[in-house]
Amino acid sequence: MSKLIKIPLPKAVFQQENFPQLTSKLNSLEKVSNLKSSANTSTIEFQIDNDSATESILDEFSKWGYQIPTNTITLGITGMTCASCVIHIENSISNLNGVIKSSVNLATNQVAVTVINGILSEPEISDSITDVGYGTYRISKSTRNIIPPVQKYTLIKASTAIISAVIINVLNHSHIEYLFNFPLAYIFLILATPVQIWAGSYFYVSSWKALKNYRSNMQTLIAIGTTTAYLYSVLITIVNPSTKNTVFFEASTAIIGIVLIGRYIEEKSKFKAVNVVNTLMSMQPSTATVTQNNQQAQVEIDSLLVDDEVLIKPGERIPTDGELISGHSWVNESAITGESIDIEKIPGSHLFSGTLNTTGSFVYRVTKSSENSLFAEIIEQLTKIQQSKVPIQKFVDKVSNLFVPIIISISIIVGLIWIFLPNEPKYEDAILATVSVLIIACPCALGLATPIAIMIGSAKATAAGIIFSDTSALENLNTMDIFVFDKTGTVTLGKPHLKNISTLNISENEAIIYAGSAESRSEHPFGKILNSICKSKNLSIIEPTEFTAIPGEGVVAKINSQKVMVGQIKLFEPKMVTKEWQHKIEDANKNGMSTILLAIENKLVAMFSFADTIKTDAQDLIKSLHILGKETMLISGDNQHVTKQVADSIGMTRYMSELSPKEKLDSIQKLQNKGKTVCMIGDGINDAPSLTQADISIAMGSGTDVAIQASGITLTNNKLSKIAHGLLISQTTMKIIKQNLLWASIYNLALLPIAAGLMHLVFHNFDVEIDSNLIITDNGLINPIIAALAMAASSISVIINSSRINLLSENPSKGLRMKIPFFSKKEKQSIDPVCDMKVNVSNPHGGTFSYKSVTYYFCGPGCNHAFQKEPESFISGNKKIKM
Q1: Residues 38 and 91 both lie in one domain
Q2: Contact, 712 vs 693, CB < 8 A?
Q3: What's the CA gap between 185 and 172, in Å, rounded?
Q4: pLDDT at residue 818, as a whole number
Q5: Model confidence pLDDT, tens digit, residues 122-166
Q6: Residue 515 lies in a domain
Q7: Do 9 and 108 fall within a single domain?
């Protein structure tokens, strides 16, 4: 079905010389036709055959230098129950002009719609959703991730239905009818009718809204099934009220009650499973104490401006990112890093929104607004991935859209078969089989199989300090063939220090001044060190009159009218590097040090030797990756000796040295050309091209904004060991998705034939007799009540299975594993007297402190310090710091 798209453009675009070429290119795109442009109305319009074509069109505009402004509108949705609901809503929204893409999430009951600015409004999107039978509600910044809990009214309806079903069942097996000489069928009718009309109204309303739009959903199956059982029973009651065991009032009421209870439990379980975002959002305070001219004022955090000074007291959370300017304290950064360890903060230390001040008071300067903070970015990334879909989910949604009509057709065929079986018509069995087929079919489990696992998996990763920016990274991380690591700042701490200075005909201070001045405009770590040494020694930096940076080699500058060169050996002509300098460079490299040379007027006058420290968890990570069958490689711009020494020390056999940023990019491409899927791990600006080229990229949290934006995964805690944990989360999440889909498919494929009466052949041929019809009848037919229980259980089981992702644990000494309840050995724990957090006695992150012959265990150093100041206050419970 074609769709007309109209895009408003500035008039200046129509006046550009290349505009005719742009329209020609757009018209040549696949699935685009009838393109027309009008400078008078400042619009360009065309027809597309597929929504995916819109993104191609926007990309084409970008290539010609014009970015069409877009934004994402998020709405909450009520009334969704299965994957067919998802398809109905997405189809309705996609028909609107200005929609680029839409994604409906059954697990969060939300829709994210990317639209072209100025064409489509939020009310119009809301109207398109309500037109197909669903409700909408606006999502504010504070409630965008909150799933509205199912109304208690639903639980009252469900309880009423269940109680009515129990009463009918008890009366049906009693002898009260003989005492009063009154047909029980009338009593059953009186009990069942309010349930069918009042408690069952939810199914009727939803089904009617879907039917008005020529669609169906899960509620359609429930409505048809219970109505069939109810109307048949009403007919029997009118025709022959004294007949026993032929009415199905008990079944119709019980089904309504069970499905409503199942729905209630399902929504509660979903809310609990995905509540991590709400927990994160609650960590950000709503107000802050701003200090100005010795005055304090409480302001909303949205009102905070860069350079505002904010006072933070013990037990308060930091409202937005900044830099400490006065005071001293310990801050728990678990909200950002996933590590519940207090970090000491002194003047100059960076502070992050959502983290908890545990001990002292301090004043800090705001460096980012609340909406641009790292904490806000983490929440945004988590929300984004939870709203997106893996490819298999789109296929499942399409299958589920056909599911309900197919089930209705099957139920009709099954009913007719039972009526027209040889011998006499079996109307009771036909009703039983028809209702059971309608009720037992469950598209809900299929619809929840993927999104609930993605949500829990991404939330689990975020809680550990692993931020997935898209579902493809979560889906494919465990399938990568080779993991390529940059050296400096990734495998090493990225904090090199100057170990030695060798000079010739120049003093050390003069060498530092020339090198620091030449590097004053450079972003290279060694250059920054030399620049900072100048400042620490109060040496004057001379502003270069000329400056040229040569990527991967060094810099060339003019200082005091002299040509100054600072960089690696390959920056200099071979004749400039004498044998004496060559020996010094080789000796430094053999000792694991990197070297930077200084030349003035084409003569080498100094060599700076730097040493960096390898991260303690690097070797364990490489070992874990090798055990999992993954290849590893180290790449660096450093010299061969240093690169080889680092590679050998962490267990890598493959490495490449002395690479420029372009050569790093080429090395990634060569691996991909060999058919390898590549995961690149880096941290700096020079890594950004390689990170972008790799199939999946991981940026260390200490890296630059460019590297973080270029990556599919960000480690906020800068620990390499988290890569193995992220890989396990990826692997487990995809395994859970496959299990969910397999279970949902097998459930429907296996139980539908049984509900239709497959067991009748066995019962008939072997003359099986059943004492109770509670589960199955003498004819081999399932009790519809059992079908309703099975249907409700199937959705809940998918949620429970997905929740197993939360049981994943990481233990550096014992490797990665999934905890199994009741079988896992429990570690001895104690309660931190300061914050009431549970602490492993065997490894308390904050250490211990003995007071009055009692040993206390702490979650972090901050709590330990606070306790030592006021032990009695914390022991008595008069003072607590809430985490």
Answers
A1: yes
A2: no
A3: 9
A4: 52
A5: 888 998 888 887 888 887 655 544 445 456 678 889 899 999 989
A6: yes
A7: yes
Query: Which domain, by its residues, includes 685?
Result: 466-492+614-716
Contact 190, 164 (CB under 8 A): no
CA-wise closest residue to 596 among 686, 504, 526, 509 = 526
Q: Round the average pLDDT of the chain to a whole number and report it.
A: 82
As a whole number of angstroms, the distance between CA 333 and CA 697 comes to: 24
Q: Closest Cα partner for 72 from 122, 106, 109?
A: 122
Q: Give the domain-ending residue among 681, 716, 751.
A: 716
In 3D space, the residue among 663, 384, 390 whose CA is nearest the CA of residue 551 turns out to be: 663
* Least confidently predicted of 138-152, 382-396, 741-755: 138-152
The residue among 684, 724, 688, 686 whose CA lies nearest residue 701 is 684
Using CA of residue 115, residue 116, residue 118, residue 124, what is the dihedral sign? negative
pLDDT category of residue 194 using cuts at 50, 70 and 90: very high
- Structure token pair of residue 579: 């044998």
Question: Same domain for 401 and 269?
Answer: yes
Report the number of distinct structural domains present in the chain: 6
Q: How many residues does the chain have?
A: 883
| Same domain membership, residue 77 and residue 18 | yes
| CATH code of the domain containing 636 | 3.40.50.1000
User: Which range is least confidently modeled, 80-84, 228-232, 744-748?
Assistant: 80-84
883 part of a folded domain: no
Residues 522, 569 share a domain:
yes
For the segment 30-56, what is each residue's pLDDT rounded down to a tens digit?
Answer: 667 777 777 777 777 777 766 666 777
Q: Is 342 helix (H, G, I), strand (E, B) or coil?
A: strand
pLDDT range class, residue 565, cuts 50, 70, 90: very high
Give yes or no for a contact between 691 and 711, defined as CB atoms under 8 angstroms apart.
Answer: yes
Region for residue 485 given its phi and psi (left: phi exceeds 0; alpha: psi -120 to 50; beta: otherwise) = beta
For position 598, what pLDDT does the model report? Answer: 92
Are 656 and 636 contacting, i.e. CB atoms less than 8 angstroms apart? yes
**Which of helix, strand or coil describes residue 858?**
coil
Pairing of strands 678-682, 696-700: parallel
Q: Write down the pLDDT at residue 423.
A: 66
**Mean pLDDT of all residues in 429-447:** 84
Of 307-316, 393-402, 810-819, the one with minimum mean pLDDT is 810-819
Using CA atoms, how far residue 163 sits from 246, 254, 296, 527, in Å, is: 20, 9, 60, 78
346-351 CB contacts, 8 Å cutoff, 24+ apart: 348/323, 348/324, 349/323, 349/324, 350/321, 350/322, 350/323, 351/318, 351/321, 351/322, 351/323, 351/324
Same domain for 780 and 869? no
| Rounded mean pLDDT, 661-680 | 91
- Catalytic residue IDs: 486
Last residue of some domain: 611, 644, 662? 611
Provide mean pLDDT across the span 253-282: 76
Alpha helix segments (H runs only) across 283-351: 334-337
CA atoms in the 13 A half-sphere facing the CB of 213: 22
CA-based torsion, 466, 468, 469, 473: positive or negative: positive
Residues 182, 104 share a domain: no
pTM reported for the whole predicted model = 0.72
Strands (DSSP E) contained in 458-545 are 466-468, 482-486, 497-503
More confident residue, 558 or 709: 558
Tell me whether residue 855 is in a domain.
yes
Tell me, what CATH number does 24's domain have? 3.30.70.100
Residue 46 neighbours by CB under 8 Å, 6+ apart = 4, 5, 26, 27, 32, 33, 34, 35, 36, 57
Q: Which two tokens stand for residue 147?
A: 């799933």
Helices 427-440, 391-419: inter-axial angle, 10-degree rounding: 180
Q: Which two tokens stand for residue 575?
A: 């004749």
DSSP-derived pairing of the beta strands 466-468 and 482-486 = unpaired
- Looking at the domain assignment, is residue 819 inside a domain? no
Domain match, 297 and 311 both: yes
Give me the CATH number covering residue 536: 3.40.1110.10
Q: What angle do CA 114, 116, 118 make, to 5 degrees?
A: 130
Return the pLDDT at 604: 92
Mean pLDDT of 93-98: 82
